[in-house]
Each structure stands twice: as structure tokens, then as C-alpha cells.
Queue: 2 jobs
Job 1
Amino acid sequence: MRLQSKLRRIAAHTTASFILAAAILLTGCGGGGGGAPAPSNSTSQPSSSPASSSASSSSSSSSSSSSSSSSSASSEPEQTDGILWTYSKNNDGTATITGYDKNAAKTPTGEVTIPKVYKGYTITKVGSSALNGNKDITRVVIPDTVISIGSQAFYNCTNLTSVSFPSSLKNIDGSAFAKTNLDALTLPATITNVGGRAFAEIASLASVTVQGKTVFGSGVFSTCPNLTTVVFQDSIRELPSEMFLNCSKLQSIKFPGDVKTLGSSIFKKCVLLENITIPDTVTTIGSSAFSYCTSLRSIKIPDGVTEIKTGTFEECSNLTNIVIPDSVKIIGEHAFHHCSALTKLILPRGISEIQGTAFWYCKSLKQIALPENISQINNQVFQGCVSLQDIYIPKTVKQIGSNAFDRCTSLSNVYFGGSEAMWNEITISTKDNGNKFLTNPIMNRYWNQNYTCIR
């Protein structure tokens, strides 16, 4: 019995000594003493991050199993200013901000700064639809590392009133800022491309300044109803289609130097545009370029333009004076359709074709002399010209189309460039009796006249 009791005391003492030694050893390895620290799986944020304190905090608290920064960057969202941004890596080793976690505790509100560096990657792009539909942001600061903004990146951010473009920015894709609340816009000279409708449907936008040789997409400022001032500070060769479509308060524009082309419907429905000086450098004016400019009163087409295209001045109901140069060869369909205030028009002699409905319902037109080179008067070309009294028709005309002079109830005098025999050889359409006012037997007809007889 004594032996057993002694053995139990020795065993208990040995166990206690072992436990004490183990505790001392563990304390030494825990970093409280001079031993080496235990390895960690957390990936710290590079010191170059503009929001390093919040980014580092987020990285430390949310890191899991990745031990390399590239692995962490590809799989772990990082919190910056309380915002969990999402991103994708680019082929050149940079990254694109693609959006943000809408379920995070904080989402972008008020003034928002796009991060310059995120998860160790330099941010060079704001991706398509990155902040699309965010109603809470009011101002955006884009860092000087960003070179491109994707399509619809800030589309329908209806409370966004200001954006800061860096000098690094080169490209803005289509509809990037459409339906925002910007009131003034200056595009730096470094921007080389702005996509279609990038700034369309901004009801608050009042002024635009373009500092460089930017190439624009279609409809870039369309339906900005309060846009009144546009200034181009450098030469731009082409202004695209629908650029200012439906800008109902636009009254004047300072064109860029060396502009060659005005796109189709560029000023369509600019209802307050009264007078406009088109630069002499322009050689192409697109179809419907000035259609429905109901306040336009006077315009001079520059020498070098060869065609007045379909609907160019359609429904310009107050247009009274237009100068057409000798370079024009073709007048398209509906070119002057419903120019109801136009009383007289001098057409250059070089015109070889006037297409159907070109002067449809020019209700105040009283006189016109057709050029010597045309061979036919097309369908409905003067239909509804109820005030037309005098017309000169050259001897080169061989055919007059259906309803060419329909409802020309005031037509009184026809001056023909050839003889009566030549007149009788012209094929005049009798369809719907639409040319009865031209063929009326009591019409005054004058033979062997010339182009200047009613000028």
C-alpha cells in the first residue's frame, strides 16, 4: 500500500511538470517573446492605394486562403471608402472597375471617387454599366489613371450633376452619361473618341465646350432640351448624324474649323435655331439636317456642296431666304417640303435633277425658274404650291410626272425654253388629272424664253 501511494505521488508530480513545460514552450512560440512570428495567410494592400487605410482593413478582415496578391486580386473584393467595388483584370496587367456590391453596408452616394489602385491593380477603365441607374451619386471624380469609360457606365444616374475628367482620358463609349443631370460639360483635348448618345437626354445640360479634335458618334447630344451654347475650340472634320437632334433651345453654334461634313438630322427639330452660318469648308450636308427647324429664316449653302439631300429643309416653315451655290447638282425628295414661307427660289443652272416632292406644299412659293439641264419634272414636285404663278421650264424637259403641279391653283404663266412644237412633244402625266392646272387651255404660255425671264 505504501508503495502504491508513493508511485501515485511521483506520477502526479511528473504530469504537472510536463504541463508546465508545455505551457512555457507555447508562450514562447506565440510572439510574446523573442521568437519568430507565426506565418499569416492575409494579403496586405500595397501602400500606393489611395484609400489604403480602409482597403487594408477590408483586406485583413476579409482575406481567407490566398497567399499571393494576384490570387487575392482575382477572387476577393476589396472595400474602398466603405464601398465594395467589383473589377476585372485587363490583359496589360491593369484592371477595370465593373461595378459594386449593391448588398454591401455602403454603396456609392454623394461624391464618389473611382479608386486609382484597387487590389494591387492600377485602374485604367470604368466598365460598361458600372454605376448604371445609381440615383444617389451627385459627383464623380475619375482618377488620372483612367483612359476609357464604358458604355452606359453612368447611364440614368439622374442626380449626377458633375464629373471630373482627367487628362489621361481618351475614350467615352456610347450612352455613358445619358440621362444624367449634368449642367455644363467641357471635354478635354485629350479625348479622341466619344460614342453615340454619350450625353443624350440630359435635360439640365446648358453648355458644351469641346477642346480637341474629338470624333463623335451619332446622337451624342440629342434631346438635350436646354442646351443653348456649343463651342468647338479645335478643328473637327465631321459632325455626326443627330448630334443635336431635338435640342429645342439651341439658337447658335460656333462650328469647328475645317469641318467638312454635317451629318443627317444633325439639327433636326432645333425649333429655336433662327440663323446659322455654315462654314465654307463644308462639302456635305446630310439628309434632314435642318428639318423641322421652324424658326430658321435664312441660310447660305456653301460652295462645294453638290447635293441638297432628302428632307434637308423639310418643315422649315419660316424659311424665307436661301442661297444655293452653282456647285449643287441634285435636289432630293422633300428637300423643301412644307417650307410654307418661301416665296421665291433661285436655282443654279448646273442642277441636273430635282427629285419628286422636292417643293411639296411650299404654299407661298410664287415664282421659280427650272435649270437648263433637267430632263424631267418628277412626281409631285410642286404639289400643293397653291401660290405658284410663274414658272420657267427649259426645252431640255421631256417628261412631267404625275401630280407634279397638283393643286397649283394660281398657276398663270408658263415660260418655255423651246417652241410650241417642242412643248407638244413633252410627255405630261394625266394620272388623277393631277396636272390639269399646267395643261389648262387658257394658260398663258410663252415660247422660246430663257432662264432669266422670271429671275
Job 2
Amino acid sequence: MVAGKTREERWSLAGVTALVTGGSKGIGYVTCHEFNFFYLVYVHIVIKVYVYVVCDIMRLGVGDFRHAIVEELAEFGARVHTCSRNAAELEACRQRWEEKGLQVTVSVCDVSVPADRESLMATVKANFGGKLDILVNNAGQSLFKLAAESTSDDYTRIMATNLESCFHLSQLAHPLLLASGIGGSVVHISSIAGFIGLPALAIYSMTKGAMNQLTRSLATEWAHDGIRVNCIAPGGVKTDISSDKTIDPELVKKEMARVPMGRIAEPEEVASMVAFLCMPAASYMTGQVICIDGGRTIT
């Protein structure tokens, strides 16, 4: 609550603890680099072009988006723990954050594996003295594949990574959030794909739509515990598209024409909303799914 707090206290995360999953890579990076170009020749030309545009626009450069979230929270004074499947990339990130003087610890975790999720939360509990103030369910994986071509393995993998991990980690974090004593905050990272229809994103979109509803359900259940649960649904987030030689700039322009603001987001524009939702200044906000998309979902 903000009652009795100074302006500085309302807009600060000094001393709080946070877990941000998937802190070493950006949304869609792995999937888009693994996306098989030759698969596209079997797709209708309109869908082919559109999927290719979405794939590149939604892709983030290595770590930009998730680095931004970790760094934003840490720069506001939070002690942050983050995780990734790739130990080498994670260590490189840790060194970078250490050089910046940020309080960030790391551990290896594949959030699609239940045992890894339990081990992660045990590490967080030990690191933060049995308490946790903020959980950001940020890890996720995309799948650009037509519904008719998707397999049961595709479905299982994406559901486990995007949705099951979000639900299970929230469950595991609940007692630690309760123990924080200051009112915990959970933020899920969804996508505008959970609101609008996009070709070749059926399974991915299902996980994000379900995540949006999970946000509302948990917010309703946990409000009496003093735990707020909100969600952010980004559209395209900017990285190195201008230097990517594999995409036609004209295709980017066509997609951008559907965005009223005429551009895609900077990583910091998403990270700053995450930080706000975790601050005392947002203490009366819960159950909200906020689109950060330059108006894409209203056109």
C-alpha cells in the first residue's frame, strides 16, 4: 500500500527481492533462428510473408528484452535472481551485471522441467532468506508453425515451457511471497498473440491466452493474501532488425502500418512497465493484462 509512503518510497524497489525467469535471452530468439526457411515454401504466399514478418519483428536480439527486465529491477534497487538453460550465456550475463554493480545472482534451469522449477525455487528460498517479493514469469518459447502441421510434441513442449511453468512457479513462489510481509507482486509476460489472431502461432497463442486468464484467476484468489498478480502483453520489441539482411524492409513497413504509433517498442518500454507493476505506486492494481503494443490490438 502507498499510504504513509514518501514519493521516493512509492517509486522505489530498494531492498526487495525478485526472481525473473529466462533472464539471458529474448523472446522468440531461439525459435526464429531454428525456424526452417524451407518449410515456408509449402505455405500459402500471403501466410508465408506474414509469418516471416512476424517471426523477425517479434524476435529479439540475444538478451535485450530479458536483460532489460533484470537490469530495470536491479537498477531500482532490487536484489534479483534469474535463470536460463544455457550456463555459458548465463555466466556472461552475470559478469556483465557484476561490472555494472547490480545485485544479480544466477542459476541454470529449464523451466519446462518440473524438477528444475522446484530446484530453482529452493535456490531462491536459500538466497533470499525464505522470502520473495517479486516473481516475473518471463521465460517462454515461440513456435511458428501452421496448426495442421503441428505435432503433439510441439504442443507438449510449448505448453510446458510457457504455461505449465508459469502456473507451477507461481504455486511454488506463493509461500515465499506470503513470507515477504510487504505484499508480493507477480508479473506474467504474455503477448498480443493472446488477443489477436495470427497465422502459424496457434499453440503459442493458446498459451498466452491461458496466461492472461491465469492472471485474473490468481489475482482473485491471492488478493486476500496481499499478493498482486498482473500481466504484460508486448507486441513487437525492437532489436537489430535494421541490420538483419534476411528480411525485406518493405515487409517490416507493412506490418508497422498496422501499428498506430508506427514503430515497435524499445526493450526498456516493456521493462519499465514490469518495474512499475512491482512498485508500491501500483499497490491497487491486480488482475490486469496490459498491452504494450503501440496500439496494435485496437486497430
